[in-house]
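User: Some background: our group keeps a shared notebook of sequences we're curious about, and every so often someone picks one and asks for a predicted structure to add to the entry. Today it's my turn. The entry only has the sequence so far, pasted here. Could you supply the structure so I can complete it?
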Amino acid sequence: MSMKIRHALPDDLDRITEIYADAVLNGTASYELDPPSRAEMGERYNSLTDAGYPYLVAERDAVILGYAYAGPFRARPAYRFIVEDSIYVAPEAKGAGIGKTLMQALIDESTVLGFRQIIAVIGDGHADSASVQLHERLGFHYTGRMEGSGYKHGRWLDTVFMQLALNGGATLPPDPGSMPERRFVAKGGKG
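Assistant: Of course. Here's the predicted structure to add to the notebook entry:
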């Protein structure tokens, strides 16, 4: 059966929590040291989806193989047109193109919502890391590095920033019909 990308549902959170726990315990992409509980992952999911951010899963034969979401890059309102991406693939599914398919779907959804930039904040972001290479293949460009910004698994890790412009990026004024602008105005803000 072919892989399907769809919006994550609350029923997916057990598997999402499991995938993320593996990334926390065995990887360096996340700088968390202890895996969050299922309840905490549910709160994070609700916070993003209630605000209208995309949260996707890749599924094959009714098994979640990975997930990706976009969320606010920073809380201050001037950042409202930028999202930060997060993507995690189950260990048994890595290297099968799932990450690329998920990220492309996340880029597409973020574009439709009217965001102007996607930022990737990549833990342990060395040039040959799978995450850096994935983002490069999808058109992201390198924008910065924080050296020795994380300490995990007995070593210092660099954090890399990569960026992809959407909807004309910074070359056009904000779209008043975009999701981030509509939410801002609904809260009483003026761009």
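Suggested note for the entry: The CA atoms of residues 69 and 84 lie 8 Å apart. The chain has five helices and seven strands.
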